[in-house]
Amino acid sequence: MSTESPQDGLPRCPWAGDDTLYRHYHDREWGRPVTSDTRLFEKICLEGFQSGLSWITILRKRERFRAVFHGFDIPKVAAMAEADIEVLLQDAGIIRHRGKIVATINNAGRALELQQEFGSLAAYFWSFETMPEHRPTDLSWESLRQLAHTDASLSLSKDLRKRGFKFVGPTTCYAFMQAMGLVNDHMDGCFCRDEVEAERASLARPR
């Protein structure tokens, strides 16, 4: 069940809340299909940083993350070295977690390998677009709060880890799939749901 925003009266998913930045993210980004390798790489990395934290924390730091990780340009991130890691560990504008920083650089190298094998990150990620049987059909707030992962996110997580990616558990992968439009998990009644569905219907899937 969606809820109406007191600011503009539009029905939204309850998680959007009243924070202006968060509502903008919900309205303009979350769930809208993405085929840009740079944006897909950024998102899988930031979802890893989000592990154990709230997404709004990451969202508020996103511009700084983009600055220190070269706009998530994959080759540039893959080329970062120990000296760069030490600098980042002193930067209060990001999440100063050595494991997650190292994982981002590692994952850039693995992303380059995926591009070589599949032609693009988009072709790889979108190959996991499915509608698992146990995914809720009512898209209610309660049902989605209880759903931490799906068959598709389990498969994606398993394959990424087999390829050497880090901080890509099934819950992280499901949040990634929701945000990048591989599924449309806007609530029934949310004003974005039909917009997102139309964008997904017209999308030329990368192959």
What does this entry look like structurally?
With 207 residues, the chain is mostly helical. It has one domain: Hypothetical protein, domain 2 (Endonuclease III, domain 1). The chain contains eleven helices and two strands. It has a two-stranded antiparallel ribbon. 35% of the residues are buried. The model has no long low-confidence stretch (mean pLDDT 90).
Count the DSSP helices.
Answer: 11
Largest sheet: 2 strands, antiparallel
**C-alpha Rg (nearest Å):** 17 Å
Low-confidence segments, ≥5 residues, pLDDT <50?
none
How many distinct folded domains? 1
Number of strands: 2
Give the tags:
about 210 residues; mainly alpha; Endonuclease III, domain 1; two-stranded antiparallel ribbon; 2 strands; about 55% helix; globular; metal-binding; Tag; 3-methyladenine DNA glycosylase; DNA-3-methyladenine glycosylase activity; zinc
In short:
With 207 residues, this protein is an all-alpha fold. The protein has helices at 20-28, 37-50, 55-68, 74-78, 82-88, 98-118, 121-126, 141-145, 151-162, 170-179, 191-202; strands at 3-4, 11-12.
